[in-house]
């Protein structure tokens, strides 16, 4: 059996675009697979002490002449007493009506983290973990395939992430076989309640569930009869921190690793593993990557 048969049909959903560290500005890069609802771009940087302005442009193409349309121009300006942000769209070489956002938490000489979360109708921007603005699209998001960063900014890192809607369900067309690995990466939300990863078979039985409870800080395997087996290990999920769950299929069960640390195995016979058809994930997390 070729491993390709297990892969998601949309390559971009599982091939993550590698992050870029300390690129030289002006910096222009292709956004793999373009933008679509659920995509997130993370920008970590420093505003130089003498900064006047910088801009982050989500562009439709990258040619220099004619100038590409810019679906979303995010432009912090520092030459006024209080820094502010201008957002706008450039279409056919013309700027449209600009929107001014005062009170941005960006400061000269300070480092920052800006997240751009692209949704169906609008992009949401957060600065240093606080929601800052939303901007309704004036051009179709699907036209955007290029990120451009210009002006007075030191870029530490640019990251590209996919946020999957929860609950998230993935089909396992041929069940699980020894040697296969399920990888789940995400970010725990601010005030988390729980995180559940369940494996279901064609008859919608749930032979195995991995459940993390943030209220009592426990991690457990739950069997189809609801029998709970606590995993005795330090609780490695933390609010607002990234996590990685690896489930490695082996003869007679599934081995678990959380954030690189082996946490034992749960037994499940080969027939039950082969009959699994669905992976379902829910709970208080943002999911960036699910693949197997
Ligand atoms: C112009 C400025 C452009 C762009 C635009 C946004 O005044 O020259 O760089 O920021 O505003 O509306």
Strand content: over 45%
Unreliable spans are 1-9
Q: Quickly count the domains.
A: 2
Number of strands: 24
Ligands: beta-D-galactopyranose
Distance between the termini: 14 Å
Give me the secondary-structure category: mainly beta
Over all CA atoms, what is the radius of gyration?
22 Å
How are the elements arranged and paired?
Blueprint: E1 20-21, E2 27-30, E3 39-46, E4 54-60, E5 69-77, E6 84-91, E7 94-95, E8 99-102, E9 111-118, E10 122-127, E11 130-136, E12 146-151, E13 154-162, E14 168-171, E15 181-188, E16 194-201, E17 208-213, E18 218-223, E19 228-230, E20 242-250, E21 253-258, E22 261-267, H1 270-274, E23 276-283, E24 285-291
Antiparallel strand pairs: 1-13, 2-12, 3-9, 3-13, 4-5, 4-12, 5-6, 6-7, 6-8, 9-10, 10-11, 14-23, 15-20, 15-24, 16-17, 16-23, 17-18, 18-19, 20-21, 21-22
Your description of this structure?
This protein is mostly beta strands and 292 residues long. The protein has two domains: 3-162, Jelly Rolls, CATH 2.60.120; 168-291, Sandwich (Jelly Rolls). Helices cover 2% and strands 52% of the residues. It is built from one helix and 24 strands. The chain has one helix at 270-274; strands spanning 20-21, 27-30, 39-46, 54-60, 69-77, 84-91, 94-95, 99-102, 111-118, 122-127, 130-136, 146-151, 154-162, 168-171, 181-188, 194-201, 208-213, 218-223, 228-230, 242-250, 253-258, 261-267, 276-283, 285-291. Strands 2, 4, 5, 6, 7, 8 and 12 form a seven-stranded antiparallel β-sheet that branches. A six-stranded antiparallel β-sheet has the order 1-13-3-9-10-11, with no helix packed on it. The longest helix has 5 residues, at 270-274. The chain is elongated, with a radius of gyration of 22 Å. The model is unreliable at 1-9 (pLDDT under 50). Beta-D-galactopyranose binds at residues 73, 75, 86, 88, 95, 98.
């Amino acid at each position: 059996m070729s491993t390709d048969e297990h892969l998601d049909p949309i390559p971009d959903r599982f091939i993550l675009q590698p992050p870029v560290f300390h690129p030289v500005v002006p910096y222009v890069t292709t956004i793999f697979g373009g933008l679509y609802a659920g995509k997130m771009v993370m920008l970590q940087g420093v505003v130089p002490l003498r900064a006047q302005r910088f801009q982050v442009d989500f562009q439709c193409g990258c040619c220099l002449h004619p100038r590409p349309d810019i679906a979303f121009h995010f432009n912090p300006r520092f030459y006024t007493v209080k820094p502010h942000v201008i957002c706008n769209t450039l279409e056919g070489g013309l700027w449209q009506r600009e929107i001014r956002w005062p009170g941005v938490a960006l400061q000269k000489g300070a480092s920052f983290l800006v997240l751009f979360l692209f949704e169906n109708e609008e992009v949401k921007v957060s600065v240093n973990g606080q929601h800052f603005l939303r901007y309704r699209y004036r051009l179709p998001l699907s036209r955007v395939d290029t990120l451009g960063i210009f002006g007075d900014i030191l870029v530490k890192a640019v990251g590209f992430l996919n946020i999957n809607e929860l609950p998230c369900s993935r089909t396992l067309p041929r069940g699980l076989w020894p040697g296969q690995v399920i990888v789940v990466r995400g970010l725990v939300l601010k005030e988390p309640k729980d995180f559940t990863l369940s494996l279901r078979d064609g008859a919608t039985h749930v032979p195995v569930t991995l459940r993390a409870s943030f209220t009592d800080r426990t991690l457990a395997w739950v069997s189809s009869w609801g029998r709970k087996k606590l995993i005795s290990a330090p609780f490695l999920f933390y609010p607002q921190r990234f996590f990685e769950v690896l489930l490695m299929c082996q003869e007679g069960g599934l081995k678990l690793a959380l954030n690189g640390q082996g946490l034992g195995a749960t037994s499940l016979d080969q027939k039950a593993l082969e009959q699994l058809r669905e992976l379902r994930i829910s709970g208080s997390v943002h999911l960036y990557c699910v693949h197997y």
